[in-house]
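Private note to self, pasted from the team thread so I don't lose it. Backbone tokens:
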């Protein structure tokens, strides 16, 4: 082992795994474009204040998980721990509010959180993120939920279902939080220290606690769905009506609150079967107040995020069929200085004709052909002493039991083009 190792909580995405990544990214892109989402790419780092203000100072992300530092100009900077705050900043800063509504955006890229590494969870990981901005109607909620569903269905995830809740709005949530806090104070001796702290900093998060001792208290807690205002109740009922008509299974989960302060009204997760104790594969919800909070005009919005590493882990576990990445169909083997020069020109000519090609860089002809076999191309082109003498190239078809033929040098490119075209048909 060398002197240096990768930082804890990171991973090297080696060539052997890239087919999963390429397949997943292609699936995500195809589904997003089919829905009319446009791609937006954001900086890897933003001002720290964007996340403390947008995500919430009392959230686990801000309190425990952000990679923050001061740059050489004295600015407080944070590697992005999630996408939505950055999307909203870009929406405001770039005047996207004047675009026709809804504005539908998606992003794919790395996220950074200082978490305890475990299976499928890293300190640098990748997310797919989708947002619909500018529409209050529950159809926007349905749109992002269906996009999430269709991505997982396209990846052959089984037993898909939604977990669904409404966290209310600034009009009805305060009264519920008061009710919830009063209930929890009656059970203060039965709950964990984290829940006691959250009662004063982020009360809704007590419903998301995983500590065994807190579960009976959570089970008896008042439900926010019973205290929604008319607007929130109407919105939630309409969304459920759409899901019922589409026969998309869902479970009302009063414990589902998500971990970020900006959520209002709808929150949801997509669950799947056969992936262990943690059935949730992605989550999101509505955040109608975030754009105004960050300095923009009042603008409703809804979105979700999905971790790509977790998806790939499931794909590998359930042996999802994933095509191999294409390899250059031609490998050129050569022997001798003069043959090398001819081989290099042939390499350039093949590539100029749009044919992928590789060339041996060392070794005997025997070892070069072993390399050609391992590379997995279709044709091995051989240029040795005999070929140089006759102005030919020996072509071995590796898909036909290494059958071989001799082709005049000047005809090789056209011959390979014709054979590859025939194979593709």
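Design output:
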């Amino acid at each position: 082992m060398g002197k240096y190792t990768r930082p804890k909580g990171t991973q090297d995405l080696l060539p052997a795994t890239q087919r999963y990544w390429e397949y997943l990214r292609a699936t995500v892109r195809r589904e997003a474009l089919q829905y009319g989402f446009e791609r937006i790419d954001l900086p890897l780092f933003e001002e720290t204040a964007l996340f403390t203000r947008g995500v919430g100072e009392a959230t686990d992300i801000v309190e425990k998980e952000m990679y923050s530092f001061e740059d050489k100009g004295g600015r407080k900077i944070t590697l992005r721990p999630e996408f939505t705050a950055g999307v909203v900043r870009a929406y405001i800063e770039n005047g996207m509010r004047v675009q026709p509504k809804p504005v539908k955006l998606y992003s794919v890229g790395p996220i950074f959180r200082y978490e305890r590494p475990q299976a499928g969870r890293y300190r640098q990981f990748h997310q797919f993120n989708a947002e619909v901005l500018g529409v209050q109607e529950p159809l926007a909620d349905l749109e992002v939920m269906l996009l999430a569903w269709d991505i997982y269905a396209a990846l052959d995830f089984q037993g898909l279902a939604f977990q669904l809740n409404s966290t209310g709005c600034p009009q009805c949530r305060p009264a519920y939080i008061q009710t919830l806090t009063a209930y929890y104070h009656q059970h203060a001796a039965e709950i964990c220290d984290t829940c006691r702290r959250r009662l004063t900093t982020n009360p809704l998060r007590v419903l998301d606690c995983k500590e065994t001792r807190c579960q009976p208290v959570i089970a008896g807690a008042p439900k926010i769905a019973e205290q929604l205002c008319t607007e929130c109740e109407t919105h939630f009922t309409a969304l459920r009506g759409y899901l019922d008509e589409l026969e998309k299974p869902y479970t009302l989960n009063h414990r589902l609150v998500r971990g970020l302060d900006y959520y209002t009204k709808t929150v949801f997760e997509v669950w799947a079967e056969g992936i262990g104790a943690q059935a949730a594969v992605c989550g999101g919800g509505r955040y109608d107040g975030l754009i105004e909070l960050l300095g923009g005009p009042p603008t409703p919005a809804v979105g979700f995020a999905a971790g790509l590493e977790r998806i790939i882990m499931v794909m590998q576990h359930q042996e999802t069929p994933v095509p191999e990445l294409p390899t250059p169909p031609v490998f050129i083997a050569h022997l001798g200085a003069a043959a090398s020069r001819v081989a290099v020109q042939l390499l350039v000519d093949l590539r100029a004709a749009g044919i992928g090609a590789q060339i041996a860089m060392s070794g005997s002809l025997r070892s070069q052909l072993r390399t050609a076999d391992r590379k997995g191309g279709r044709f091995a082109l051989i240029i040795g002493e005999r070929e140089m003498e006759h102005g030919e190239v020996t072509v071995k078809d590796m898909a036909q039991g290494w059958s071989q033929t001799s082709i005049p040098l000047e005809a090789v490119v056209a011959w390979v083009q014709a054979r590859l075209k025939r194979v593709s048909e």
